[in-house]
Design a protein that fits this description.
- The protein is mainly alpha-helical.
- It has two domains: 17-38 and 50-113, no CATH class; 114-157, no CATH class.
- The chain contains five helices and two strands, in the order H-H-H-H-E-H-E.
- The chain has helices at 27-33, 53-66, 80-93, 95-109, 135-141; strands at 118-123, 148-153.
- Strands 1-2 form a two-stranded antiparallel ribbon.
- The radius of gyration is 20 Å and the shape is globular.
Length: 157
Amino acid sequence: MLTPASFPSLGQFDVASRTDDRKQLSDEQWFIIEDLFPWEPPSESGGRPSVPPRAVLEALLWLLRIGGRWKDLPDWAPSESTCRRRLRAWTESGLLTEVWARLIELTDELGEMDWEHLIADGTFCRAKKGGISWATAAKATGQPPWSSWTVTALPSE
C-alpha cells in the first residue's frame, strides 16, 4: 500500500489543494495593478453584486499555477462561468496584456529583469473535433495548423 512516506521527495513541492485559501497575489502586487480592473461596488438600490476582480484573478492564477481544469476551481473561487466570462472579457479588451506589461516594466525598474535570457514559446494543437474555420486556410499555405514556433532574442555582438 502506498502512503505519503512512500514519496519523501513530495514534501519539497508546493502542492495545491481545492480547499487551499492562500492568495496568489500579495497586497503589494494587487495594489500595482488594481486600477486597471474595472469594478463597481454593489449599489444601494439592490441587485446581485458582481464578483470583485481580485477574486477572479486569484482563481485564474491558481488554475495556472497547478495546471488545473475549470472544474478543479477551489471552493473559495468564484464560479467557473464567472471566471471564464471575465477571462474572455479581459483578454479581448487587452487588459491582461496591460497587466503583464505593467508588471514587466516594474520588474525592470527594480533591476530584477534579466534581458540577456529571453524565450518566447508558442504551441498550437489540432482540435479534436475539427476546429475553427480559419484553420483550413493553413492547409492552403502548406503549414499544418498544429505547428509550433519558438522565438529567441539574442544580444547583438
